[in-house]
Amino acid sequence: MAPEQKKRARPAPKASQRSKKRQKIEVQPEPKSDVKKLKVAVDALPWNEAQLPDMFDDAEGFFGLEEVEGVEVIRDGNVVQFVTANAQSAKEEDEEFEGFGDDEITPENGNEPEAAGTESSKTTKEKKAKKDKKKKPAKAEKSTDEDTEDLKVNVFKALEDGGDEGADVSAWADVDLSSSLMSALSKLGFARPTPIQLEAIPEILSGHDVVGKASTGSGKTLAFGIPVVEKWLETYGELEEEELRETRPPTALILSPTRELAHQLSEHLKALCSGLTNAPFVAAVTGGLSVQKQQRQLARADIIVGTPGRLWEVMSSSIELTASFKEIKFLVIDEADRLLTEGHFKEAEEIINALDRQQDAEEGAEENLPTRQTLVFSATFHKGLQQKLTGKGKQGLKDGTDSMEYLLKKLNFREEKPKFVDVNPVSQMADRLKEGLVECAGTEKDLYLYSLLMYHPNQRTLIFTNSIHSVRRLLPFLQNLNIPAQALHSQMAQKARMRSIERFSSPKNTGSVLVATDVAARGLDIGGVQLVLHYHLPRTADMYVHRSGRTARAEASGSSILLCAPEEVVGMRRLVAKVHAQNAISGGGNKSKYYMRSLDIDRKVVARLKPRVTLAKKIADSALAKEKKGHDDDWVRNAAEELGVDYDSEEFEAAGGGRKGRGTGRKLKEKESRALTKSELGALRAELKSLLSQRVNVGVSERYLTSGTVDINELLKGAHGEFLGKVDGIGMDDQ
Ligand SMILES: Nc1ncnc2c1ncn2[C@@H]1O[C@H](COP(=O)(O)OP(=O)(O)OP(=O)(O)O)[C@@H](O)[C@H]1O
């Protein structure tokens, strides 16, 4: 699409409109006479997320509270109208209102012509260095999505801290990128392409549909992100500031299976774009955050990253959006094997249907092939999917009985055979990942979990469980033991989810622990995760690969340890056989690679940790049971109300409302926990505190385990013996 098509004027943001200051709706004094007023509907006002004090951390009802500034409220009898100061004429009201918020795209960086494509990266770098002295580097989206500000993790933060030297990017020469992108990569410090980038980018740039497979943490995001940005630069990179403010169809739609991953992908692309003079506007569209705000951002987005559910919700409510989406140049499916799984594909399918429907209507179904390129990426593709993706997908689709065939057909590749780029045909696991397992009884997993954390103190650790209930249970348990744990699961409010990730990934919290369900298993790129602990055996081998892939990313190394109960042994064997099958076949060539091995953990030491674990569990259970009792009481009260009887009456109990006679062992335990009085709890806490303050002897030679939060080096200063926490865990290095 040529830039001059489909343009729609957009009001220029005023400096005052970008003010960071927030205020509640209030009646403004008479506006100055030279400012024209604009009446707008309440939904079209420039709402911003209200900033709440930390004490509201988990008050779910408050998340999503929005406020607006610079709005005049006019009351005429019962009619309330909202008027904004705006230099545009009022007739544009219906067309578009971008608002005043601090989330305007600011083409402050957009009025200097792009360096010529033939210019060497060095010259471009010099030019840009001069420019950067005059003003801060472009951060087109820096202030556009405050909801995701807190999700900035890993390398992206470095950009904000300066780092204007830049890397020598001559190793990218074979990929044949524009000088602008070379310069942006230099600023990111990415000196050379990763293997998947080296292989996939040229294929995408030459117009192919691509299916890309590479191990976790190997740079797949930029493997599709760089060509998408390159395409945008090719089309719009030379636009003047004024032209850049005009809306245009988006260049790419990127689908992600989880909200966190969507925000991370968008941050990753923004980080790349922040090194550009003219940059595309990247927007993330996910559930859990304000729809109106996301709709406003979507209207001007060049690259849209979203979860299918929310994306479909906003698309289906706007014919205009759907119409502009049909012009995308790229449809990207990240973590494709998950998104193409039955049960998850429904909304993605709706989106693709909508894109293709438009296509058909306009182009008379010329072969029914889209003009967009489809890019499909993951670290894992189960065998059937892989075969079908690599070319057989378009055959045998007549009856649509095979659902996977059906889904692939739906992707509607424009080529009969997409290019299949597999840079890790042998192993899906990262090279620098060490794997081990610890065998223990199912009932002792809490004890062993804590022991493992003690053996690896001050390491950023991600614990995966198979259920939300387990996350809820383990969180207070670990916190009682002074482990700085955060939780992440899908039933948490989105703000709380992001806050957990932010705290977990904060450079200040190197020894932080995140207890999560598989919602955190895919794609999350959090720097410095050294250890992944599988509290439960993952449900699939692929999930094991993704979970373990949260560590040992890019150039880093890391460990993955599975807690394995006797009833999980069969499943674990199957898992190892699957994950390392190819390695085993390839045999001697890969001698240095070891597989999951049973790790030695001194049971005597574990036994010494038992008293504190028992206490911590008791205290945590008591809190959980009380919380549960609150819910139960609500239920009972509501049921009594429905029956029209007193909550405490015998009549109500007789009617079954009191749920008598359903006491099981678990219920009894809960009851016992609830029965703990305040002073009993206080005594338990005091006992635990005293235990936690003691070192744990780990053997004959004055060796001790310490609480994970204690600085091992400090302790060592006064001791001759060794602390297990100081050495490299439990023998992972010897293997
Ligand atoms: N060329 C490069 N040089 C150095 N680091 C890079 C390069 N490309 C990407 N990275 C960094 O590597 C890390 C992992 O990248 P990314 O998140 O894209 O991995 P992935 O392959 O998508 O992993 P997963 O399968 O877990 O989603 C990121 O921190 C990213 O910034």
TrEMBL record:
Domain Helicase C-terminal residue range list: 448-600
Main location: nucleus
E.C. code: 3.6.4.13
UniProt keyword list: ATP-binding, Helicase, Hydrolase, Nucleotide-binding, Nucleus, RNA-binding, rRNA processing
Keyword rRNA processing: yes
GO cellular component: nucleolus
Comp. bias (Basic residues): 7-23, 125-137
Segments for region (Disordered): 1-36, 87-147
Gene Ontology molecular function, alphabetical: ATP binding; hydrolase activity; RNA binding; RNA helicase activity
Coiled coil (UniProt feature): none
Domain DEAD-box RNA helicase Q span(s) in chain numbering: 170-198
Domain Helicase ATP-binding, residue spans: 201-399
Domain of life of the source: Eukaryota
InterPro entries registered for this protein in UniProt: DEAD/DEAH_box_helicase_dom, Helicase_ATP-bd, Helicase_C-like, P-loop_NTPase, RNA-helicase_DEAD-box_CS, RNA_helicase_DEAD_Q_motif
Motif Q motif, residue range(s) on this chain: 170-198
Acidic residues: bias regions: 92-106
An example Gene Ontology biological process: rRNA processing
Pfam families tied to this protein: DEAD, Helicase_C
Cross-referenced PROSITE patterns: DEAD_ATP_HELICASE (PS00039), HELICASE_ATP_BIND_1 (PS51192), HELICASE_CTER (PS51194), Q_MOTIF (PS51195)
Location relative to the cell: Nucleus, Nucleolus
Family: Belongs to the DEAD box helicase family.
Notes on the domains: The Q motif is unique to and characteristic of the DEAD box family of RNA helicases and controls ATP binding and hydrolysis.
Protein name in the entry: ATP-dependent RNA helicase
Organism: Coleophoma cylindrospora
